[in-house]
Design a protein that fits this description.
single chain; 332 residues; alpha/beta; 8-stranded mixed beta sheet; 42% helix
């Protein structure tokens, strides 16, 4: 059952100009929330908001390039300057560049998939945690929601498929060594663009669970991840081979029967953001194994790698160092 719609609830959603983020934002707006649309292409976002009929008094568009840590800090300052409260942060945006033969680098010199999908969201979450805690302390809803993926969770079939390789962050050797050229993988091994994406999403899920362990009890903030289903035709795959973009949606619709539309996936994200049924913290929500008839959400187990407290704590510390979290940042 949804919280009573009210403009007093404010959410930040990353990656809202297309895909799941776009439809999650629309679903939250339909529930009466005020949504900050965080995206790289502001002009594209304006056109999408107009096309989708977003109510003009219920959203703001902010530039955010998660691959650039300075952009993340600038975004947070801009948000704080508004004086708005924050009730939910939705870490949705991601880049997937499977055709890269050599690593692309962020302005800080980090491999771009990890920099955008993981480092940017980690820093954003750290810097906004106090805002969420303030809402929780006032007895209001406060949730940090992160999008995961089946391909990074070895507890599920999709996470066992070795194409190009399974998610594997090893002992974090690449982060330990500073994660600069020539290192491009978290485990410091050979660069594989598709695997870099999986690794980054695994880190997203680990970090959210570590937020839960460190801060849920004291802050009252709910920390959850979710996989809303296989959105096979999302813009996430726009850099995949053309043949893949044609075959993958057909395969999910007709063979696995696991296809989920962007609209359904977006609504599932909104449910985890604001519905009372998702108020338990430290959960990875799923809607079935994609090739099953199960439609009701349930708590999906995460892999041993995601649940190892020692690896999680070490990942947290190394990431904090690489993104430059210091005593002036929230949630140290």
């Amino acid at each position: 059952m949804s919280i009573t719609p009210s403009k007093k609830y404010t959410a930040i959603v990353t990656g809202t100009s297309s895909g799941v983020g776009r439809f999650a934002a629309k679903s939250l707006l339909d529930r009466g929330w005020h949504v900050l649309l965080a995206c790289r292409d502001v002009e594209k976002m304006r056109k999408v908001a107009e096309q989708d009929g977003f109510p003009s008094d219920s959203y703001d568009i902010f530039h955010l390039d998660l691959g650039d840590l300075q952009s993340v800090r600038g975004f947070v300052k801009q948000f704080h300057d508004t004086g708005l409260p924050l009730h939910s942060l939705v870490c949705n945006a991601a880049v997937y560049l499977p055709l890269l033969k050599s690593p692309m680098r962020s302005p800080q010199g980090y491999e771009i998939s990890v920099a955008t999908n993981y480092f940017g969201h980690y820093l954003l979450s750290r810097l906004l945690l106090n805002d969420l805690t303030k809402s929780a302390n006032q007895g209001q809803l406060a949730r940090l929601i992160t999008l995961g993926t089946v391909t990074a969770n070895s507890e599920e079939f999709g996470g066992k498929v070795p194409i190009p390789a399974k998610a594997d962050i090893g002992n974090l050797e690449g982060l330990e060594a500073g994660f600069h050229d020539p290192i491009a993988m978290i485990n410091a091994r050979e660069f594989k663009a598709g695997k870099a994406y999986k690794d980054s999403k695994l880190c997203n899920m680990i970090a959210n669970r570590e937020f839960h362990r460190r801060y849920h009890e004291a802050s009252g903030v709910v920390f959850n991840t979710l996989y809303p289903g296989c959105v096979a035709d999302t813009a996430l795959f726009r850099n995949a081979p053309d043949l893949f973009q044609k075959i993958f949606p057909w395969f999910q619709k007709n063979i696995t029967k696991g296809y989920v539309s962007q609209q359904v996936a977006g609504d599932r994200v909104a449910q985890v953001v604001c519905d009372s049924a998702f108020s338990l913290s430290g959960v990875h929500w799923s809607w079935g194994n994609r090739n099953s008839a199960i439609n009701a959400p349930f708590s999906q187990a995460l892999s041993e790698k995601a649940n190892d407290p020692n690896r999680s704590s070490r990942l947290w510390d190394l990431t904090a160092k690489l993104v430059g979290c210091d005593e002036g940042d929230s949630a140290n």
